[in-house]
Amino acid sequence: MLNAMIIAARIHRLLLLYGLALILGACTLASPRPVAHEDLKAQHPARDLEREKRLIVPKPSPVSEKTPPVVKPLEPTSRIYSITFQKASLGEALAALTKDSDYNLIIDADVDLTRSITVRLNKVTLNQALDMIVVNGAGYAWGINEGALHIRRFAEKIYHLDHLDLTGETNIEVGGDLLASGVNSTSVAGKYQVKARKPEQSSDLWAALAEALEGLKSPDAILRINRNSGVIYMADTPSRIAAMVRFLDSLSESLHRQVFIEAKIMEVILKDDQKTGIDWTKLNVDFTSGSALLPDIFTLEFNGDGQIAKSNTSRFSGVLDFLRTQGDVAVLANPHISVINRQSAVLTVGSQFPYTDIDGVDRDLETGVVTIGTSIKRALLGLQLGITPLISSDGLVTLNIVPTLTRIQREVALEIPTSGTGAPQTISNPVIDLQELATTVRVRGGQSVVLAGLISKIRKINHEGLPLLADFPFLGKLFKHIETSEENVELVILITPYIKETI
User: Fold this and answer.
1) Which of 96, 213, 283, 405 makes an SS bond possible with 435, Cβ 3.0 to 4.6 Å?
2) Rounded to 5 degrees, what angle do the CA atoms 276, 267, 444 make?
3) DSSP-derived secondary structure for 357-424
4) Half-sphere exposure of residue 448, counting CA atoms within 13 Å on the CB side?
5) Integer Cα distance of 265 and 383 in angstroms
6) What's the pLDDT tens digit per position in 34-44?
Protein backbone atom coordinates (compact mmCIF):
# COMPACT_ATOMS: atom_id res chain seq x y z
CA MET A 1 0.00 0.00 0.00
CA LEU A 2 2.84 2.34 0.85
CA ASN A 3 4.59 1.55 -2.40
CA ALA A 4 1.47 2.36 -4.41
CA MET A 5 1.13 5.73 -2.71
CA ILE A 6 4.79 6.52 -3.39
CA ILE A 7 4.41 5.63 -7.09
CA ALA A 8 1.26 7.75 -7.39
CA ALA A 9 3.04 10.72 -5.80
CA ARG A 10 5.92 10.43 -8.23
CA ILE A 11 3.57 10.28 -11.23
CA HIS A 12 1.75 13.33 -9.93
CA ARG A 13 5.08 15.18 -9.53
CA LEU A 14 6.14 14.26 -13.11
CA LEU A 15 2.85 15.51 -14.55
CA LEU A 16 3.30 18.83 -12.76
CA LEU A 17 6.82 19.19 -14.09
CA TYR A 18 5.69 18.34 -17.66
CA GLY A 19 2.89 20.91 -17.52
CA LEU A 20 5.27 23.55 -16.19
CA ALA A 21 7.69 22.80 -19.05
CA LEU A 22 4.93 23.25 -21.63
CA ILE A 23 3.96 26.61 -20.19
CA LEU A 24 7.56 27.87 -20.17
CA GLY A 25 8.16 26.62 -23.73
CA ALA A 26 5.11 28.48 -25.06
CA CYS A 27 6.37 31.70 -23.52
CA THR A 28 9.74 31.45 -25.22
CA LEU A 29 8.38 30.94 -28.86
CA ALA A 30 9.67 33.50 -31.44
CA SER A 31 7.25 36.07 -32.93
CA PRO A 32 6.03 35.37 -36.55
CA ARG A 33 8.30 36.71 -39.32
CA PRO A 34 6.97 39.05 -42.04
CA VAL A 35 6.26 37.55 -45.45
CA ALA A 36 9.10 38.14 -47.99
CA HIS A 37 8.08 40.15 -51.09
CA GLU A 38 11.14 39.54 -53.27
CA ASP A 39 9.36 36.94 -55.40
CA LEU A 40 6.34 39.18 -55.90
CA LYS A 41 8.48 41.98 -57.36
CA ALA A 42 9.96 39.67 -59.97
CA GLN A 43 6.56 38.61 -61.21
CA HIS A 44 4.77 40.32 -64.12
CA PRO A 45 1.12 39.36 -64.23
CA ALA A 46 0.41 41.06 -67.58
CA ARG A 47 3.29 39.32 -69.30
CA ASP A 48 2.34 36.01 -67.79
CA LEU A 49 -1.23 36.52 -69.00
CA GLU A 50 -0.12 37.22 -72.55
CA ARG A 51 2.11 34.18 -72.46
CA GLU A 52 -0.75 32.05 -71.38
CA LYS A 53 -2.94 33.37 -74.18
CA ARG A 54 -0.51 32.34 -76.88
CA LEU A 55 -1.53 29.43 -79.02
CA ILE A 56 0.91 26.60 -78.82
CA VAL A 57 0.83 24.35 -81.84
CA PRO A 58 0.95 20.79 -80.61
CA LYS A 59 3.74 18.74 -82.03
CA PRO A 60 2.91 15.46 -83.69
CA SER A 61 3.23 12.53 -81.42
CA PRO A 62 6.13 10.24 -82.17
CA VAL A 63 5.17 7.26 -84.30
CA SER A 64 7.20 4.10 -84.07
CA GLU A 65 6.24 2.89 -87.55
CA LYS A 66 5.73 4.67 -90.87
CA THR A 67 2.22 4.80 -92.23
CA PRO A 68 1.82 4.21 -95.96
CA PRO A 69 0.76 7.31 -98.00
CA VAL A 70 -2.77 7.53 -99.31
CA VAL A 71 -1.58 8.30 -102.88
CA LYS A 72 1.21 6.29 -104.39
CA PRO A 73 4.39 8.20 -105.18
CA LEU A 74 4.86 9.38 -108.76
CA GLU A 75 8.30 7.85 -109.01
CA PRO A 76 8.64 4.35 -107.65
CA THR A 77 12.29 4.41 -106.72
CA SER A 78 12.44 0.63 -106.56
CA ARG A 79 11.82 0.12 -110.29
CA ILE A 80 14.39 0.99 -112.96
CA TYR A 81 13.78 0.67 -116.69
CA SER A 82 16.33 -0.26 -119.35
CA ILE A 83 14.74 -0.89 -122.75
CA THR A 84 15.12 0.17 -126.38
CA PHE A 85 12.26 1.04 -128.75
CA GLN A 86 13.23 1.13 -132.42
CA LYS A 87 10.47 2.67 -134.55
CA ALA A 88 7.86 1.27 -132.19
CA SER A 89 4.38 2.65 -131.84
CA LEU A 90 3.41 4.75 -128.85
CA GLY A 91 0.83 2.16 -127.81
CA GLU A 92 3.44 -0.62 -127.73
CA ALA A 93 5.82 1.49 -125.67
CA LEU A 94 3.13 2.40 -123.12
CA ALA A 95 2.05 -1.23 -122.87
CA ALA A 96 5.62 -2.29 -122.14
CA LEU A 97 6.02 0.37 -119.43
CA THR A 98 2.72 -0.24 -117.67
CA LYS A 99 2.76 -4.02 -117.95
CA ASP A 100 4.41 -4.58 -114.58
CA SER A 101 3.13 -1.40 -112.86
CA ASP A 102 0.13 -0.90 -110.61
CA TYR A 103 -1.15 2.15 -112.49
CA ASN A 104 -4.32 2.28 -114.49
CA LEU A 105 -3.97 3.70 -118.01
CA ILE A 106 -6.20 6.45 -119.46
CA ILE A 107 -5.61 7.65 -123.04
CA ASP A 108 -7.53 10.57 -124.58
CA ALA A 109 -9.33 9.96 -127.86
CA ASP A 110 -7.23 12.47 -129.82
CA VAL A 111 -3.94 10.74 -128.94
CA ASP A 112 -2.45 8.83 -131.90
CA LEU A 113 -1.16 5.56 -130.49
CA THR A 114 0.32 4.56 -133.85
CA ARG A 115 2.85 7.40 -133.79
CA SER A 116 6.33 5.95 -134.27
CA ILE A 117 9.01 6.59 -131.67
CA THR A 118 12.66 5.61 -131.27
CA VAL A 119 13.94 5.76 -127.71
CA ARG A 120 16.71 4.05 -125.78
CA LEU A 121 16.21 3.88 -122.01
CA ASN A 122 19.13 3.02 -119.74
CA LYS A 123 18.49 2.75 -116.00
CA VAL A 124 15.80 5.42 -115.75
CA THR A 125 12.80 5.84 -113.47
CA LEU A 126 9.20 5.72 -114.62
CA ASN A 127 8.91 9.53 -114.71
CA GLN A 128 12.05 9.82 -116.80
CA ALA A 129 10.88 7.07 -119.12
CA LEU A 130 7.49 8.75 -119.62
CA ASP A 131 9.17 12.09 -120.36
CA MET A 132 11.42 10.54 -122.99
CA ILE A 133 8.68 8.44 -124.63
CA VAL A 134 5.51 10.54 -124.31
CA VAL A 135 6.85 14.13 -124.24
CA ASN A 136 10.06 14.00 -126.28
CA GLY A 137 9.25 11.04 -128.50
CA ALA A 138 5.56 11.48 -129.27
CA GLY A 139 4.97 15.15 -128.36
CA TYR A 140 2.11 14.47 -125.94
CA ALA A 141 1.55 15.21 -122.24
CA TRP A 142 1.12 12.81 -119.34
CA GLY A 143 0.22 12.90 -115.68
CA ILE A 144 -0.47 10.54 -112.75
CA ASN A 145 -3.51 11.19 -110.60
CA GLU A 146 -5.17 8.87 -108.09
CA GLY A 147 -3.28 5.81 -109.29
CA ALA A 148 -4.01 6.37 -113.00
CA LEU A 149 -1.55 7.26 -115.77
CA HIS A 150 -3.27 9.78 -118.03
CA ILE A 151 -1.96 10.41 -121.58
CA ARG A 152 -3.23 13.71 -123.02
CA ARG A 153 -2.69 15.49 -126.29
CA PHE A 154 -2.18 18.91 -124.71
CA ALA A 155 -0.61 20.05 -121.48
CA GLU A 156 -1.98 23.02 -119.54
CA LYS A 157 -0.10 25.99 -118.14
CA ILE A 158 -1.22 29.17 -116.36
CA TYR A 159 1.28 32.05 -116.42
CA HIS A 160 1.05 35.26 -114.37
CA LEU A 161 2.54 38.37 -115.98
CA ASP A 162 2.60 41.43 -113.72
CA HIS A 163 2.21 44.43 -115.99
CA LEU A 164 -0.21 47.36 -115.92
CA ASP A 165 -2.78 47.46 -118.66
CA LEU A 166 -1.91 51.00 -119.70
CA THR A 167 -1.38 52.35 -123.19
CA GLY A 168 0.13 55.72 -123.93
CA GLU A 169 1.54 57.79 -126.73
CA THR A 170 4.82 59.71 -126.71
CA ASN A 171 5.59 62.53 -129.14
CA ILE A 172 8.90 64.40 -129.29
CA GLU A 173 9.37 67.47 -131.47
CA VAL A 174 12.53 69.55 -131.18
CA GLY A 175 13.46 72.37 -133.53
CA GLY A 176 11.18 74.30 -135.84
CA ASP A 177 10.85 76.78 -138.64
CA LEU A 178 13.29 79.54 -137.77
CA LEU A 179 12.40 81.74 -140.76
CA ALA A 180 8.66 81.08 -140.72
CA SER A 181 8.78 79.68 -144.23
CA GLY A 182 5.71 77.62 -143.47
CA VAL A 183 3.64 80.76 -142.81
CA ASN A 184 4.82 83.04 -145.58
CA SER A 185 5.31 81.76 -149.10
CA THR A 186 8.98 82.64 -149.38
CA SER A 187 11.86 80.96 -151.13
CA VAL A 188 14.02 81.14 -147.99
CA ALA A 189 13.66 78.21 -145.60
CA GLY A 190 15.30 77.69 -142.25
CA LYS A 191 13.61 74.64 -140.88
CA TYR A 192 15.29 71.75 -139.09
CA GLN A 193 13.15 69.62 -136.85
CA VAL A 194 13.65 66.29 -135.09
CA LYS A 195 10.49 64.29 -134.53
CA ALA A 196 10.06 61.04 -132.67
CA ARG A 197 6.76 59.32 -132.12
CA LYS A 198 5.74 56.25 -130.17
CA PRO A 199 2.20 55.45 -131.28
CA GLU A 200 -0.40 53.99 -128.99
CA GLN A 201 -0.42 50.72 -130.91
CA SER A 202 3.24 50.02 -130.24
CA SER A 203 2.86 50.72 -126.52
CA ASP A 204 0.01 48.21 -126.15
CA LEU A 205 1.98 45.36 -124.62
CA TRP A 206 -0.91 42.93 -124.32
CA ALA A 207 -1.87 43.23 -127.98
CA ALA A 208 1.76 42.64 -129.02
CA LEU A 209 2.01 39.74 -126.56
CA ALA A 210 -1.10 38.05 -127.96
CA GLU A 211 0.28 38.39 -131.48
CA ALA A 212 3.63 36.88 -130.45
CA LEU A 213 2.07 33.92 -128.63
CA GLU A 214 -0.24 33.25 -131.56
CA GLY A 215 2.88 32.75 -133.66
CA LEU A 216 4.41 30.35 -131.13
CA LYS A 217 1.44 28.08 -130.40
CA SER A 218 0.09 25.19 -132.43
CA PRO A 219 -2.70 25.92 -134.92
CA ASP A 220 -5.37 24.16 -132.85
CA ALA A 221 -4.00 25.02 -129.40
CA ILE A 222 -5.91 27.11 -126.86
CA LEU A 223 -4.64 30.52 -125.71
CA ARG A 224 -6.52 32.88 -123.41
CA ILE A 225 -5.19 36.21 -122.08
CA ASN A 226 -6.88 38.24 -119.35
CA ARG A 227 -5.45 41.75 -119.47
CA ASN A 228 -7.04 42.90 -116.20
CA SER A 229 -5.55 40.15 -114.03
CA GLY A 230 -2.42 39.39 -116.07
CA VAL A 231 -3.30 35.69 -116.35
CA ILE A 232 -2.30 33.75 -119.48
CA TYR A 233 -3.79 30.28 -120.03
CA MET A 234 -2.09 27.93 -122.49
CA ALA A 235 -3.15 24.45 -123.64
CA ASP A 236 -0.67 23.04 -126.13
CA THR A 237 1.95 20.38 -126.60
CA PRO A 238 4.68 20.36 -123.93
CA SER A 239 7.34 21.57 -126.36
CA ARG A 240 5.22 24.52 -127.52
CA ILE A 241 4.32 25.44 -123.94
CA ALA A 242 8.00 25.30 -122.95
CA ALA A 243 8.82 27.71 -125.81
CA MET A 244 6.05 30.12 -124.80
CA VAL A 245 7.11 30.01 -121.14
CA ARG A 246 10.73 30.81 -122.09
CA PHE A 247 9.46 33.74 -124.14
CA LEU A 248 7.28 35.00 -121.26
CA ASP A 249 10.10 34.61 -118.73
CA SER A 250 12.44 36.67 -120.90
CA LEU A 251 9.73 39.29 -121.47
CA SER A 252 8.92 39.52 -117.77
CA GLU A 253 12.58 39.92 -116.84
CA SER A 254 12.98 42.73 -119.38
CA LEU A 255 9.79 44.53 -118.37
CA HIS A 256 10.66 44.49 -114.66
CA ARG A 257 14.06 46.11 -115.07
CA GLN A 258 14.17 49.47 -113.35
CA VAL A 259 16.59 52.37 -113.31
CA PHE A 260 17.02 55.13 -110.74
CA ILE A 261 17.91 58.41 -112.45
CA GLU A 262 19.61 61.26 -110.64
CA ALA A 263 19.63 64.54 -112.57
CA LYS A 264 21.24 67.89 -111.81
CA ILE A 265 20.07 70.81 -113.93
CA MET A 266 22.12 73.95 -113.44
CA GLU A 267 22.67 77.37 -114.98
CA VAL A 268 26.11 78.95 -115.02
CA ILE A 269 26.30 82.75 -115.36
CA LEU A 270 29.55 82.96 -117.29
CA LYS A 271 32.33 85.32 -116.31
CA ASP A 272 33.59 87.96 -118.65
CA ASP A 273 36.49 85.79 -119.77
CA GLN A 274 34.18 82.80 -120.38
CA LYS A 275 31.68 84.34 -122.77
CA THR A 276 32.26 81.54 -125.28
CA GLY A 277 31.16 78.88 -122.82
CA ILE A 278 32.59 76.57 -120.18
CA ASP A 279 36.08 75.29 -120.93
CA TRP A 280 35.71 71.60 -120.07
CA THR A 281 39.35 70.87 -120.96
CA LYS A 282 40.33 72.49 -117.67
CA LEU A 283 38.41 69.85 -115.75
CA ASN A 284 40.90 67.27 -114.49
CA VAL A 285 40.14 66.27 -110.92
CA ASP A 286 40.85 62.92 -109.28
CA PHE A 287 38.96 61.75 -106.20
CA THR A 288 40.01 58.68 -104.21
CA SER A 289 39.20 57.35 -100.77
CA GLY A 290 41.29 58.46 -97.84
CA SER A 291 42.31 54.91 -96.95
CA ALA A 292 43.20 54.10 -100.58
CA LEU A 293 41.30 50.84 -100.17
CA LEU A 294 38.19 51.70 -102.19
CA PRO A 295 38.51 51.84 -105.97
CA ASP A 296 37.42 54.80 -108.05
CA ILE A 297 33.97 53.88 -109.25
CA PHE A 298 32.86 57.07 -110.97
CA THR A 299 34.20 58.29 -114.29
CA LEU A 300 32.92 61.36 -116.09
CA GLU A 301 34.27 61.91 -119.60
CA PHE A 302 33.87 64.84 -121.97
CA ASN A 303 34.80 65.74 -125.49
CA GLY A 304 38.46 66.60 -125.30
CA ASP A 305 40.81 65.79 -122.46
CA GLY A 306 38.53 66.67 -119.55
CA GLN A 307 37.83 63.81 -117.18
CA ILE A 308 36.66 63.17 -113.63
CA ALA A 309 37.56 59.94 -111.87
CA LYS A 310 36.18 59.91 -108.36
CA SER A 311 34.55 57.77 -105.71
CA ASN A 312 30.88 57.71 -104.82
CA THR A 313 31.00 60.24 -101.98
CA SER A 314 30.92 63.73 -103.52
CA ARG A 315 30.63 63.53 -107.28
CA PHE A 316 28.24 66.47 -107.53
CA SER A 317 30.41 68.60 -105.27
CA GLY A 318 33.39 68.04 -107.56
CA VAL A 319 31.49 69.14 -110.66
CA LEU A 320 29.95 72.06 -108.80
CA ASP A 321 33.35 73.28 -107.60
CA PHE A 322 34.64 73.22 -111.16
CA LEU A 323 31.62 75.10 -112.51
CA ARG A 324 32.11 77.79 -109.88
CA THR A 325 35.48 78.52 -111.44
CA GLN A 326 33.62 79.34 -114.66
CA GLY A 327 30.94 81.57 -113.17
CA ASP A 328 28.05 81.80 -110.73
CA VAL A 329 26.09 78.54 -110.48
CA ALA A 330 22.35 78.21 -109.82
CA VAL A 331 20.70 74.79 -109.45
CA LEU A 332 17.36 74.85 -111.26
CA ALA A 333 16.22 71.33 -110.38
CA ASN A 334 17.54 68.20 -108.70
CA PRO A 335 15.08 65.42 -109.59
CA HIS A 336 15.44 61.80 -108.50
CA ILE A 337 13.08 59.42 -110.27
CA SER A 338 12.77 55.68 -110.82
CA VAL A 339 11.65 54.55 -114.27
CA ILE A 340 10.62 51.13 -115.57
CA ASN A 341 12.37 49.82 -118.66
CA ARG A 342 11.12 51.44 -121.93
CA GLN A 343 8.68 53.72 -120.09
CA SER A 344 8.83 57.50 -120.41
CA ALA A 345 9.03 59.90 -117.47
CA VAL A 346 8.52 63.65 -117.62
CA LEU A 347 9.28 66.31 -115.02
CA THR A 348 7.85 69.83 -115.28
CA VAL A 349 8.73 72.73 -112.99
CA GLY A 350 7.40 76.17 -113.83
CA SER A 351 4.29 78.25 -114.41
CA GLN A 352 1.82 79.03 -117.17
CA PHE A 353 1.86 82.51 -118.68
CA PRO A 354 -1.41 83.60 -120.36
CA TYR A 355 -1.27 85.77 -123.47
CA THR A 356 -3.66 86.93 -126.20
CA ASP A 357 -3.56 85.37 -129.64
CA ILE A 358 -5.42 86.50 -132.79
CA ASP A 359 -7.65 83.93 -134.43
CA GLY A 360 -8.76 86.11 -137.33
CA VAL A 361 -9.90 89.56 -138.50
CA ASP A 362 -13.35 90.21 -140.03
CA ARG A 363 -14.40 93.51 -141.71
CA ASP A 364 -18.01 94.48 -142.29
CA LEU A 365 -18.22 95.94 -145.83
CA GLU A 366 -21.27 98.09 -145.06
CA THR A 367 -20.26 99.63 -141.76
CA GLY A 368 -16.50 99.24 -142.07
CA VAL A 369 -16.32 97.86 -138.58
CA VAL A 370 -13.42 95.50 -138.04
CA THR A 371 -13.93 92.58 -135.65
CA ILE A 372 -10.84 90.92 -134.28
CA GLY A 373 -11.17 87.35 -133.01
CA THR A 374 -8.91 86.63 -130.09
CA SER A 375 -8.28 83.73 -127.74
CA ILE A 376 -6.35 83.22 -124.56
CA LYS A 377 -3.39 80.85 -124.80
CA ARG A 378 -0.87 79.80 -122.21
CA ALA A 379 2.85 79.34 -122.53
CA LEU A 380 4.72 77.07 -120.14
CA LEU A 381 7.58 78.93 -118.53
CA GLY A 382 10.13 76.90 -116.66
CA LEU A 383 11.88 73.57 -117.01
CA GLN A 384 10.68 70.35 -118.56
CA LEU A 385 12.73 67.14 -118.67
CA GLY A 386 11.66 63.99 -120.49
CA ILE A 387 13.60 60.71 -120.20
CA THR A 388 13.01 57.28 -121.70
CA PRO A 389 15.46 54.53 -120.61
CA LEU A 390 16.32 51.26 -122.32
CA ILE A 391 18.04 48.87 -119.92
CA SER A 392 19.99 45.98 -121.42
CA SER A 393 20.86 42.74 -119.68
CA ASP A 394 24.61 43.54 -119.67
CA GLY A 395 24.25 46.66 -117.49
CA LEU A 396 24.15 49.29 -120.24
CA VAL A 397 21.49 52.01 -120.22
CA THR A 398 20.35 53.85 -123.34
CA LEU A 399 18.72 57.19 -122.49
CA ASN A 400 16.59 59.37 -124.73
CA ILE A 401 16.83 62.80 -123.07
CA VAL A 402 14.76 65.85 -124.03
CA PRO A 403 15.28 68.91 -121.79
CA THR A 404 13.46 72.19 -122.47
CA LEU A 405 13.94 75.52 -120.68
CA THR A 406 11.77 78.58 -121.39
CA ARG A 407 11.67 82.08 -119.91
CA ILE A 408 10.22 85.46 -120.88
CA GLN A 409 12.71 87.95 -122.26
CA ARG A 410 10.33 90.83 -122.76
CA GLU A 411 6.89 91.75 -124.06
CA VAL A 412 6.26 93.49 -127.38
CA ALA A 413 3.21 95.41 -128.58
CA LEU A 414 1.70 94.29 -131.88
CA GLU A 415 -0.37 96.79 -133.90
CA ILE A 416 -3.51 95.60 -135.65
CA PRO A 417 -4.97 98.08 -138.17
CA THR A 418 -8.74 98.35 -137.87
CA SER A 419 -9.49 100.60 -140.85
CA GLY A 420 -7.82 102.96 -143.21
CA THR A 421 -8.32 106.00 -140.98
CA GLY A 422 -8.90 104.56 -137.54
CA ALA A 423 -6.21 104.16 -134.96
CA PRO A 424 -4.68 100.69 -134.88
CA GLN A 425 -5.28 98.41 -131.93
CA THR A 426 -2.39 96.92 -130.02
CA ILE A 427 -1.98 93.66 -128.17
CA SER A 428 0.95 92.60 -126.00
CA ASN A 429 2.68 89.30 -126.72
CA PRO A 430 5.64 87.79 -124.89
CA VAL A 431 9.03 87.07 -126.42
CA ILE A 432 10.02 83.68 -125.00
CA ASP A 433 13.62 82.54 -124.75
CA LEU A 434 13.80 78.82 -125.59
CA GLN A 435 16.56 76.30 -124.90
CA GLU A 436 15.94 72.71 -125.92
CA LEU A 437 17.75 69.66 -127.21
CA ALA A 438 17.05 66.00 -127.88
CA THR A 439 19.70 63.30 -127.77
CA THR A 440 20.13 59.59 -127.24
CA VAL A 441 23.15 58.37 -125.27
CA ARG A 442 24.37 54.99 -124.04
CA VAL A 443 26.21 54.64 -120.73
CA ARG A 444 26.88 51.98 -118.17
CA GLY A 445 24.95 52.03 -114.92
CA GLY A 446 26.58 54.40 -112.42
CA GLN A 447 28.27 56.56 -115.06
CA SER A 448 27.20 60.13 -115.76
CA VAL A 449 26.25 62.06 -118.86
CA VAL A 450 26.87 65.80 -119.19
CA LEU A 451 24.81 67.91 -121.58
CA ALA A 452 26.07 71.47 -121.94
CA GLY A 453 26.77 74.23 -124.42
CA LEU A 454 23.35 75.87 -124.68
CA ILE A 455 24.18 79.54 -124.09
CA SER A 456 21.53 82.24 -123.99
CA LYS A 457 21.83 85.97 -123.49
CA ILE A 458 19.54 87.28 -120.76
CA ARG A 459 18.74 90.96 -120.68
CA LYS A 460 17.83 92.42 -117.30
CA ILE A 461 16.26 95.84 -116.75
CA ASN A 462 16.52 97.28 -113.24
CA HIS A 463 14.33 100.30 -112.37
CA GLU A 464 15.52 102.51 -109.52
CA GLY A 465 14.05 105.82 -108.37
CA LEU A 466 12.67 107.91 -105.55
CA PRO A 467 9.26 106.92 -104.29
CA LEU A 468 6.31 109.01 -105.53
CA LEU A 469 8.57 111.48 -107.35
CA ALA A 470 9.58 108.90 -109.94
CA ASP A 471 5.92 108.33 -110.81
CA PHE A 472 5.22 111.89 -112.01
CA PRO A 473 4.78 112.16 -115.78
CA PHE A 474 7.60 113.83 -117.64
CA LEU A 475 9.32 115.09 -114.47
CA GLY A 476 9.54 111.58 -113.04
CA LYS A 477 12.41 110.77 -115.40
CA LEU A 478 14.58 113.12 -113.41
CA PHE A 479 14.11 111.07 -110.24
CA LYS A 480 14.56 107.53 -111.59
CA HIS A 481 17.27 105.49 -113.17
CA ILE A 482 16.97 102.55 -115.53
CA GLU A 483 19.90 100.14 -115.70
CA THR A 484 20.14 97.52 -118.42
CA SER A 485 22.51 94.56 -118.15
CA GLU A 486 23.12 91.44 -120.20
CA GLU A 487 24.37 88.06 -118.97
CA ASN A 488 25.52 84.98 -120.83
CA VAL A 489 24.02 81.90 -119.20
CA GLU A 490 24.94 78.31 -120.09
CA LEU A 491 22.68 75.38 -119.31
CA VAL A 492 24.42 72.30 -117.81
CA ILE A 493 22.65 68.98 -117.22
CA LEU A 494 24.28 66.11 -115.32
CA ILE A 495 22.41 62.78 -115.49
CA THR A 496 23.47 59.55 -113.72
CA PRO A 497 21.44 56.32 -114.08
CA TYR A 498 21.65 53.48 -111.54
CA ILE A 499 20.25 50.08 -112.41
CA LYS A 500 18.11 48.79 -109.55
CA GLU A 501 17.83 45.18 -108.50
CA THR A 502 14.88 43.44 -110.09
CA ILE A 503 12.12 42.81 -107.58
Assistant:
1) 405
2) 95
3) EEEEEEE-TTT--EEEEEEEEEEEEEEEEEEEEEE-TTSEEEEEEEEEEEEEEEEEEEEE--SSSSPP
4) 27
5) 9
6) 555 555 556 66
